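Sanity check. The docking grid for nicotinamide-adenine-dinucleotide depends on where the pocket ends up, so I'm generating a full predicted complex first rather than guessing from homology. Inputs follow.
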Amino acid sequence: MELRTLGNTGLKLSSVGFGASPLGNVFGPVSEKDANASVSEAFRLGINFFDTSPYYGGTVSEKALGKALKALGVPRSEYIVSTKCGRYVEGFDFSAERVTRSIDESLARLQLDYVDILQCHDIEFGSLDQIVTETIPALQKLKEAGKIRFIGITGLPLEVFSYVLDRVPPGTVDVILSYCHYSINDSTLEDLLPYLKSKGVGVISASPLAMGLLTESGPPEWHPASPELKAACKAAAAYCKENGKNISKLAMQYSLSNKDISSVLVGMNSVEQVEINVASATELSTVGKDEKTLSEIEDILKPVKNQTWPSGIQQS
Ligand code: NAD
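Predicted complex below; grid placement will be based on this.
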């Protein structure tokens, strides 16, 4: 598995990262056995980066990931863990007091002494000025205390990243996690990559399968895409199937192709999915992408290209 350096952190992340939101039963129920087996197989195949949040399944994902990582029985330095703060099933709270308490709760659930990255989760739902003046300074104290190694921010609207990065001292925010903006149907993150590089900020891109849109079985009930976008992705998946291709493989390879993205975080809940996604990465580095089918799919998705959905509260 290819390793890619994450901004100025010195961390080397596997190009395929393990998104643990499915371990919080977000995409349907996952047994403890499947959770452990998925994490174990991922690690065996070279995935060293695991992402979770207290929000996923209302703490279920953090607990499941913690158990599964412990069961690996390998030194802590061999895997990289990111979790988040500020978003909970009870709602959003980016206050210094809450995020400071949050890390201790997360570490207990994960059974870890530190996390590599702590990210403010979906900052468009909070006050961005509070993120700048209160939340990130609180996270810096956690860094000094050794509970976290690096600081990140996550969100859907891309403009929240530059809003924060333009207002914090350089080097304060180490990482951004963007989702659903570097996949076949939406590649708008690309325009922001030079800016992020100039700031020395590491880039993690999540949801290469557009949270299930680019799969044969389709998205979960709660998926926020418009009916038009869902229909176009369904048509693209069906076209692939009719032609003996798999849309998820094409989608993984599309996202993995940009090396300015350090890790592509894909949600996985079975050994089979882990093996398929790792095989997609291996095939990309040995044989390359299936450019012909990819361009056919891009044609099908052209009418909805870069269509997204609203997220967060309006900032004044
Ligand atoms: P995704 O695009 O990775 O899709 C996940 C879905 O696809 C799940 O149902 C999974 O079981 C399925 N899947 C995975 N591999 C497959 C394959 N080969 N074939 C068919 N289906 C497959 O979406 P995601 O899980 O939302 O995103 C990945 C991870 O990124 C999350 O688990 C989370 O860790 C992170 N993330 C973070 C944020 C945030 O911070 N705001 C938002 C979204 C995602």
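Relevant for the grid: The chain has a mean pLDDT of 96.
Also worth noting: The pocket of nicotinamide-adenine-dinucleotide is lined by residues 19-22, 27, 51, 121-122, 154, 177, 179, 206-212, 215, 248, 265-269, 273, 276-277 (CB under 6 Å).
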